[in-house]
Structures are given as structure tokens and as C-alpha cells.
């Protein structure tokens, strides 16, 4: 069970994962050792899954961001597992979800350019034996970056 101090600690770490135990202690009115123990507990209990740097896609030459809705022609455990394996191998696909509604999957992708997106669609995703059709949307502008989770 999380208390108010835990939720404040999680919120602070989502904004800046580099905070030291001393800095967290100052923010939370705890000693550095208490703040460090709380962080370790939240990590060991799975509230914190890891730490990562946020990179600028444009600086990396990833000019095209898009979403691809994937509709399967056949549904079954083997087709789903095969599709999931293909998704896991593609670095352009940065996240993927199974969905309710018309589409079976929603993929978030980053590509260097439109020919790269076209190649991903026509040489990788559409040829997969379980895929019936796709619908893609290209991001024109991102109004809000991926934000911290509400705590």
C-alpha cells in the first residue's frame, strides 16, 4: 500500500530519475537513508520498473512518427504469438497494444522518412501471414509529450 510520501516520491522520480537520496530526502522531509530505503522498496515491489533517458527523435533523424492500426485476417494463439514476435524484432515499433474495437493492434512507430514508413508497412507488416490490412496515421505535431503517470 502506498502512502502520501510514496506517491510524492514516485511523482518526483518520474520528473527527474537522477534525484539523489539526499535530494529526495529534502523534498520529502526525510533523511537521505529513509528516502533511499523507500526508493529501494518501491523498486523491489515493482512500482518502479526501471530508469531510462528520453531521447529527441528529430535529433536522431527520426522525422516521421506514426500510428498503425493492424487488422488480422486470422485470429488464434499461433497467429498472435507470431505477430508479437515480429513486433518485438522491429526497432521502429516503439510500443504496441492489443485493442478492443475494429483494430486488433495499435503500433506506435518512428521512421527516418516516409520511404522508411512505406518499407515497414509493405515489406514487414503487410506480408505477415496473419495480417489482413493496416491503417496508418502520420503524426503532424505532438501536443503533449508522454507524461508521467498520475500518482
Give the structure's gist in a few sentences:
This protein has helices spanning about 5-15, 20-30, 30-45, 75-90, 115-125; strands at about 65-70, 95-100, 105-110, 130-140. It is an alpha+beta fold.
Quaternary structure annotation: single chain
Fraction in helix: 25-40%
Tell me how many strands there are. Answer: 4
- Tell me what portion of residues adopts beta-strand conformation: 15-25%
Largest pleated sheet: 4 strands, antiparallel
Low-confidence stretches: none
Give the N-terminus to C-terminus distance in angstroms.
13 Å
Lay out the secondary structure.
Blueprint: H1 4-15, H2 21-28, H3 32-44, E1 64-72, H4 77-89, E2 93-98, E3 105-111, H5 114-125, E4 131-138
Antiparallel strand pairs: 1-3, 1-4, 2-3
Structure description:
The protein is an alpha+beta fold and 151 residues long. It has a 4-stranded antiparallel β-sheet with strand order 2-3-1-4. The longest helix has 13 residues. The mean pLDDT is 96.
Question: What distinguishing features does this structure have?
Answer:
5 helices, alpha+beta, 151 residues
